[in-house]
Amino acid sequence: MASLKVACVVLMCMAVMSAPMMVQAVSCNDVSVNLAPCLSYLMQGGDVPESCCSGVRNILGSASTTFDKQTVCKCLQQAANNYGINDEYAQALPARCNVSVPYKISRSTNCDSIKF
Description:
Keywords: Disulfide bond, Lipid-binding, Signal, Transport. The protein is mostly helical. It has six helices and no strands.
């Protein structure tokens, strides 16, 4: 009976060791894809489509580590510079989508200082 338990433990260890690591970090592509429906609002104001808010929630939900949150912040800054996003609209977006972002969405935010 003891040898059966040992065999089971060995098999479980082998399965864990051979399983691929499922580490998936948030990328700027993820941010761009999820926030694409927001681009019109972020540039011109107006109505915020529900698809935009869904994308905002997806990004917030997938950014579970400090590194992910810093990456999202940096991607937002990059997008703001590339697409001429209006800072006021960007800062208002979380409230318009009824979500909370624990840092100021701004080109001047030090993304590396975000810790969670």
